[in-house]
Amino acid sequence: MSTFRSQAISQTYGRKPVHVEELDRKSVIFGSNVFNSKSMRQFLTPDAYKAVQSAIQHGAKIDRKVAEYIAMGMKEWALSKGVTHYTHWFQPLTGATAEKHDAFFETSFDGSDPIEKFGGTQLVQQEPDASSFPNGGIRNTFEARGYTAWDPTSPAFIFGTTLCIPTVFVSYTGEALDFKAPLLRALAAVDDAATAVCQYFDKNVKKVSATLGWEQEYFLVDSALAASRPDLTLTGRTLIGHSSAKGQQLDDHYFGSIPTRILNFMRDLENECMLLGIPVKTRHNEVAPNQFELAPIFEEANLAVDHNSLIMDVMQKVGERHNFKVLLHEKPFAGINGSGKHNNWSMSTDTGVNLLGPGKTPMSNLQFLTFFINTIKAVYKNEQLLRASIATASNDHRLGANEAPPAIISVFIGQQLTKVLEDLESVSNGKLSPEEKTDLKLNVVGKIPDVLLDNTDRNRTSPFAFTGNKFEFRAVGSSANCANAMTVLNAIVAKQLKDFKKEVDSLIEGKEMKKDDAIFNVLREYIKETKNIRFEGDGYSDEWAEEAAKRGLSNHKTTPQALKAKVSESALALFEELNVMNHVEVEARYEIELEEYAKKIQIEGRVLADIARNHVVPTAIRYQNVLIENVKGLKDIFGNNFEIIAKEQINIIKEISSHISTINAKSEEMTEARKKANALTSTEEMANVYCDEVKPYFDVIRYHCDKLENLVDDEIWPLTKYRELLFTR
Ligand code: ADP
Ligand code: MG
């Protein structure tokens, strides 16, 4: 008797590592499929080249005529590389990237004169027929027009035989319909605010760029095995499955030797990344079996976000070549670690200074402390908004479950910096005496070591940790587009820096304080005010949950709860003040995210009921029938004594019946709860009912399915088991 599972398993037996062509050295091939400044210099006229560079560096507008020349050069470059199609590449609010390919090829009306054509208009703007992207009510179907517009700050690239042009996606009325547009606005806001604050320390600073280095965790599962699981195929995670006897208990996978099949996948992926100019650097095994991580060198945040979106797509494609399905879900398997995407974040000046890196002089350290403390205050004031920025149905399995990190946002800074902040708390009110200043410069600010990297403890339980020269936002989900988190983080820091500047200026002007005195005074108050957000202990402990509640920190364990902060009055005002999003855009996003949440739970509920009733229950009955036959046989042979001999079989028969009846009853109740949710017209209420009344059935139904998996003859069990999914490589 051959199940789908056994067929899938036998397919994996003959798997050999797929050969990967050696390309040239990384430094030689890096960016060769990117329209970067080297290829621009080669293919653009000097004027066109200058226009693009100035758009990248100063956000200058590119006029139509120049765009025409740029398009021509870009096309020549692409054709020289065998490209046939182009696409505007964008990031709609579905979470995936979107592309619609058009051929360069054109003919005249009568079909003559075939040529390759690509003009300025096609480069700058397109109108994808995009009525079915999520828009949260911004675009009614009668005006279902949105357009994509070229983002020259992220270079065009070639994937396969297609030229991809990074774009924003906006409605005709100007509202953002994607992840990139608000991100670009938030980055502009933080640039303005941070540059203004930098002026206190260095007049030469003209631009500040946020930097992002993401670390992407993922699982690899053999594609035949993944295809044998309807839950993995449809929801990206396993909805049932008894845990494997061996999981991650032995800690023998983390940083272990990388299996050859997997290493070849990684090498192939790295080759693609090099061609695409994605500076990947690190690869290793993660904690859970078949879990891995990849990290690049950090980049300017917009580019880094594009590169992460791109790599999530490329990973799947490379995975196919190696017969792997790449699981980016935050929690594909119960009982072992889930996946996250640490967002390492900092700000960097056009003079080459990392604003979150301690400096060598007291003055540069004061600048460091200014940005450091302002970031802490931004997080303190907006912890709920930050939590909302990472809220999704799949990330709920990490935040708020027994998983890293907790749903409570706190900031970890390490012992040394805690001491520095404590010392700064006692700075005098008002003007500082020369003695005090000298003391501060020598003994407090001056004592911050220029290399903190080795000194900041590695508290892995903190969702927002300072790690020597950057903050690491660890609560971002592995499948998320980092733009959401980055938009919020950069916006709240921008707002905070603006407020800081106002306060310092008013002390300088109103109280005739010196600049340093004013800065010390404001920072002192910030340190006192924001103590509650700082936490150095174990973020997973129950004590912390209690303590955090006393401190008034939020602990939103579910997405519908967490998302509310997004549309709070203060959040709407903040986004509007910075021109990051107007209230229509924010409210639309809130609506879209709630709807996505409800739909995800809806799909999971349907898939679970389907698996339980069409796979698990029929299999259990078949096995039960085998047992019944056996009991009948025993009765034939042993007559009245059969009950003693068949005792265990009879118990299992009863147990199976009891599990089946609970599965059926609970599946029906869950369907009723879904019906109730679906009948609601308010998305908010619908998401709440899915969260509070539908989702709780998942664990109950799963429990009984997993018990059956453990009872039923392995030979006939139809669903590929955890041990097979996790240890085939
Ligand atoms: P881990 O957290 O796994 O121990 P690291 O702390 O070394 O690893 O984090 C490395 C990540 O931090 C890399 O992706 C790197 O590019 C990024 N990173 C380093 N410096 C910065 C910075 N100034 N801004 C943003 N990201 C940075
Ligand atoms: Mg990290």
From TrEMBL:
Signal peptide, first to last residue: none
Gene3D superfamilies: 1.20.120.1560, Glutamine synthetase/guanido kinase, catalytic domain (3.30.590.10)
Domain GS catalytic: 179-616
Domain GS beta-grasp: 84-174
InterPro entries assigned to the protein according to its UniProt record, in alphabetical order: Gln-synt_C, Gln_synt_N, Gln_synth/guanido_kin_cat_dom, Gln_synth_cat_dom, Gln_synth_gly_rich_site, GS_Type-3, GSIII_N
Family affiliation: Belongs to the glutamine synthetase family.
Protein's UniProt name: Glutamine synthetase III
Organism: Flavobacterium rhizosphaerae
Lineage: Bacteria, Pseudomonadati, Bacteroidota, Flavobacteriia, Flavobacteriales
